[in-house]
Design the sequence.
């Protein structure tokens, strides 16, 4: 699609008014225009977002890009809009599925490597997001503040991931997930879920998480993932192998299980029986 919309939040004192990030891609000479009353640090997002997308092994569109931060009369400051701007561009260019962005709000400053840095006002954003019934995606270092808003699912992001199904996952490096596990465990959440990972990555992540967390774990793997830049679907796992893994995960304390991208009906039906047994 040529237009994509991602929700975020500004910060105005103790309040966090909603900001709608709209990205439009048009034909013409390559350009990147940012409108919607952005302050200097928001305007600088153009360079951070471009580098982060490229270093995350996505393609930065060589098109005329217009990003609007609505409402136009609300001043926008800080680097909190880096992540929603990057996701909106990726969705508008068809590199990630836009339907996965509808029920969440995003905030996070991007490093040039694509990693996420903390933002101010996580609690205010969490309270505002909870009031409208959406989920909130934040950098891991902002999670402890956001967790003070009880009853809100807070999703943790490490970086802008390189394949579309993951969106804002934990990252593939062991050290990334080790850091996440150490940060989440002291917060005593109701459940920690591992989502948008291949089954082998899920298996490894559960082992790492178990060293720091003894509570409930949710596992939501894919049967495969898109490999860049060839855009081929690889790492397909047979249903019987995934069933065997799910039984092993259950023995490790996984209490919730579901399917993400790539799991077909045969996977789901087999897993339902396996997890009941």
Sequence:
């Amino acid at each position: 699609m040529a237009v994509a919309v991602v929700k975020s939040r500004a910060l105005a004192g103790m309040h966090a008014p909603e900001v709608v990030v709209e990205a439009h891609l048009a034909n013409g000479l390559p350009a990147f225009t940012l409108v919607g009353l952005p302050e200097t640090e928001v305007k600088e997002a153009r360079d951070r977002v471009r580098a982060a997308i490229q270093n995350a092994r996505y393609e930065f569109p060589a098109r005329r890009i217009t990003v609007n931060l609505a409402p136009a009369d609300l001043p926008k400051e800080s680097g909190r809009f880096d992540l929603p701007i990057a996701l909106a561009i990726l969705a508008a260019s068809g590199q990630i599925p836009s339907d996965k962005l509808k029920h969440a709000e995003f905030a996070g400053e991007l490093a040039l490597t694509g990693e996420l840095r903390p933002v101010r006002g996580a609690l205010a954003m969490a309270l505002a997001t909870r009031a409208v019934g959406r989920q909130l995606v934040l950098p891991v270092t902002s999670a402890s503040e956001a967790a003070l808003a009880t009853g809100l699912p807070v999703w943790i992001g490490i970086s802008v991931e390189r394949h579309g199904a993951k969106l804002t996952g934990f990252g593939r490096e062991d050290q990334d997930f080790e850091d996440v596990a150490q940060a989440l465990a002291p917060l005593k959440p109701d459940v920690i879920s591992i989502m948008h990972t291949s089954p082998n990555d899920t298996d490894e992540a559960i082992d790492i998480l178990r060293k720091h967390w003894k509570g409930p774990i949710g596992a939501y793997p894919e049967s495969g993932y898109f490999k860049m830049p060839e855009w081929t679907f690889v790492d397909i796992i047979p249903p019987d192998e995934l069933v065997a893994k799910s039984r092993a995960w259950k023995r490790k304390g996984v209490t919730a299980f579901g399917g993400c991208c790539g799991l077909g009906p045969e996977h789901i039906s087999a897993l339902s029986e396996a997890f009941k047994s």
Observations:
- The mean pLDDT is 78.
- The CA atoms of residues 140 and 180 lie 7 Å apart.
